[in-house]
Design the sequence.
């Protein structure tokens, strides 16, 4: 069973498409989290995407605000609606029952040792789930997270990556308590870029997912001059999904404990890697460094 916690978001759309193409729909669950834009809009976007690709997949609405601190978003990157203003009709509502944190706990209890979680936004829902069910680390098989910048190449502050910065307290709760965690960092995504022709390969097929992703990409290229001027393109959230779905795409990785700065100052949201393995108060986290590129591009295709 695969649970995707997401804040669509252009990159999240690609990551969701990868999952709906490769995982049986009765083995998928999606939860939403405020992040790239506010909770209402990311949930609308998840509804719209799933209505096209996987209408039977259950969708649960998550946290609208972080555990601690002010709410931030990335509308300046993803547009006020999260999908760069792509014209579309709102999907029929399909949000289900309990809040996302409860849905995570329920899924873990119902699939002991068989639930894999991919977290593509701020970690508020996952942290709340841990607080609701302290045994969650024993129930979940794996967690793959997109977030963090050990090299301090911040995209939300001087040194912090957005997903961690948006709810640093939740990131600390998650990284200090969950086991079998893989962290696809912002640093790794910056080192793993793709040409326009490689992007075209990823959605060159005739699946409904490929058609949607092509349309989203063409719309952004036509309406975002700065994006269109790039010679190479990043795929942060899809990289995390590739690692979860096709772990053999990872060529090299390291494993160390990670501590999150929560001081409200310049370093707030920073991810500190214990490269010396000097601490032992939390499980080590696997951090992919490089990829087998042909396998990776195949994994990113829909």
Sequence:
């Amino acid at each position: 069973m695969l649970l995707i916690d997401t804040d669509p978001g252009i990159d999240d759309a690609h990551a969701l498409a990868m999952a709906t193409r490769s995982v049986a729909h009765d083995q998928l669950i999606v939860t939403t989290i405020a992040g790239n834009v506010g909770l209402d809009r990311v949930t609308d976007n998840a509804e719209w995407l799933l209505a096209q690709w996987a209408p039977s997949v259950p969708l649960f609405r998550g946290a609208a605000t972080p555990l601690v601190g002010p709410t931030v978003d990335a509308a300046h990157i993803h547009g006020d609606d999260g999908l760069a203003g792509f014209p579309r009709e709102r999907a029929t509502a399909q949000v289900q029952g309990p809040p996302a944190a409860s849905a995570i706990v329920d899924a873990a209890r119902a699939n002991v040792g068989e639930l894999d979680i991919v977290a593509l936004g701020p970690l508020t829902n996952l942290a709340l789930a841990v607080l609701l069910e302290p045994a969650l680390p024993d129930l979940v098989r794996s967690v793959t997270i997109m977030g963090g910048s050990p090299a301090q190449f911040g995209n939300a502050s001087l040194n912090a990556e957005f997903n961690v910065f948006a709810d640093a307290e939740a990131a600390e709760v998650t990284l200090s308590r969950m086991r079998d965690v893989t962290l696809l960092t912002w640093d790794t995504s910056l080192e793993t870029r793709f040409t326009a022709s490689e992007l075209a390969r990823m959605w060159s097929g005739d699946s409904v997912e490929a058609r949607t992703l092509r349309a989203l990409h063409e719309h952004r290229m036509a309406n975002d001059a700065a994006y269109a001027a790039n010679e190479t393109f990043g795929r942060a959230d899809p990289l995390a999904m590739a690692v979860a779905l096709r772990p053999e795409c990872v060529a090299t990785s390291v494993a160390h404990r990670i501590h999150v700065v929560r001081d409200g100052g310049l370093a707030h949201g920073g991810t500190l890697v214990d490269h010396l393995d000097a601490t032992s108060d939390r499980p080590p986290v696997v951090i992919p460094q490089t990829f087998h590129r042909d396998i990776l591009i195949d994994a990113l295709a829909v």
